[in-house]
Design goal:
There is one protein chain. The protein is extended, with a radius of gyration of 19 Å. The protein is built from three helices and no strands. By secondary structure, the chain is mostly helical. It has a domain at 35-77. Helices cover 38% and strands 0% of the residues. The protein has helices spanning 17-22, 47-60, 64-75.
Amino acid sequence: MKARHQKRAFATRPSDPDDWVRTPDHRPNNGAKADLFTARLTIDVTPELRGRIKVAAFHRGVTVADMLRDLLFREFPDSSGDAT
C-alpha cells in the first residue's frame, strides 16, 4: 500500500501585496531573451481581438509579445521615486 501524501494548503494572502508582487522569481538564468521577462501574464480575449493584435504586430514588424510589452510599459510607467 502506498503512503498518502499530505495535501498542500493554499498560500495565504500576503500582508504587503506590493512587496509580494515585486519579489523576483527564483528561476535559473539560461541566457535566453525570455529571462529578461520572468513574469507571465495570461488574459482572455475574443478570437477577433486576438486576430487584430496579431495582424497589427505583423504590420509593425514586431512580435505580439514585444508589442504588448511596449504598450504596457507606456500605460504603466515605472513609478519608483514618485511622490504620488
